[in-house]
Amino acid sequence: MIYLDHAATTAAYPEVVSEMTPYLDRQYFNPSGSYREGRLLHKKLDKIREKLAAVIHASPEEIIFTSGGTEADNWVLLNAARTSSCKGRHIITSSIEHHAILHTCGFLEKQGFEVTYLPVTRNGIIDCDMLNDAIRPDTILISIMYANNEIGTLQPVHKIGQIAQKNSIPFHTDAVQAYGHLPIQVDDDSIDFLSVSAHKFGGPKGVGFLYANKELALTPLLYGGAQEAGRRAGTENVAGIIGMGTASDISTAHQKEHTLLQQTLRDHLMNRILSEIPMTRLNGSRQERLPGNINVSFAGIDSATLIAMLEAKDIYVSGGSACSSSDPSPSHVLKAIGLSDEMALSAVRITIGHENTPEEIEETFRQIKNCVHELRSLA
């Protein structure tokens, strides 16, 4: 099998599985317990919190364990609506956000909030001048993703943070695709809230964290117990958090070498597809993109058919976001960058991981070229 859908999910590092296992069968205690084992677990979770905070230049008390990116995204938007509605009811986001943001914004619009959806360039990048112009006296939150999950485009996060800070507006970024793959500094980039999901960087599914600036109000999304300093109720996912901590340690320690490998393989495959297969188009920025991301449209080809043909050859790629794979309509991200329905429905996303090899990339190119030729010959 050649797995090239790492933007959807990644395999857990073997070390992650080894670290998690004892906390599922032997050290299964509740970290809220008053007995010694519970206290020890609580201390272990706090050590992981300290490490995660250090990665992004935050304070440990600003790290809150969650179930993943979707929960964190919902939490930030709904928190802004609850805590800042006396100031205003206007939110700014982009037209290419993950559905965890877009659908929550849609819900808030039904509650009487106004949302400005910033357009993006043909490369999928917002215009910071347009962001400046969109700010109003009643703007209560700016939420722009760090890196796009479909086309891999990186947003000008530092500049967005400066604009938000200058206008005293909280800035949230969905960094689910970025954490563990790119260096992140919440202090330098003036980020107030940041969403992370462990399974995107070699950790387990169902766990992540929210960074929340300690100077800003954060009301609970879930009510019940007093876990996470009273901010998130529910018994902590101990094994998941330990797995996330281990994955973070590994991915950040090897970030430079993994990035170089992914970029090298990405550029090789991308250049061969664009130069040797006629009527192809790269979607997203060539330079400002995630190191392992390729998104290409093959004119005249139905991507679902191409993906199925590649799957039959044990090559796994996708047509876009895994969270929207059951939706037959064109991707909202590809439509936002100006693609026609036909070109959007011909797009294939290939996302390379650190474990992929040059031989796998060569075989993938060979099979894509053959499949595209076969499909076009039948048209």
Word description of this protein:
The protein is α/β, with parallel strands linked by helices and 379 residues long. It has 2 domains: 132 residues, Aspartate Aminotransferase, domain 1 (Alpha-Beta Complex), CATH 3.90.1150; 240 residues, Type I PLP-dependent aspartate aminotransferase-like (Major domain) (Aspartate Aminotransferase, domain 2), CATH 3.40.640.10. It is 42% helix and 13% strand. The longest helix has 22 residues. The mean pLDDT is 96.
- The CA-CA distance between the termini, in Å, is 29 Å
Order of helices and strands: EHHHEHEHEHEHEEEHHHEEHEHHEH
- Quote the beta fraction: 5-15%
Judged by helices, strands and strand pairing, the structural class is alpha/beta
Low-pLDDT segments: none
- The CATH superfamily of the largest domain turns out to be Type I PLP-dependent aspartate aminotransferase-like (Major domain)
Helical content class: 40-55%
How many extended strands?
12
The CATH architecture of the largest domain would be 3-Layer(aba) Sandwich
Helical run tally: 14
Oligomeric state of the chains present here? single chain
- Profile the largest sheet: 7 strands, mixed
Overall pLDDT level: 96
> What is the CATH topology descriptor of the largest domain?
Aspartate Aminotransferase, domain 2
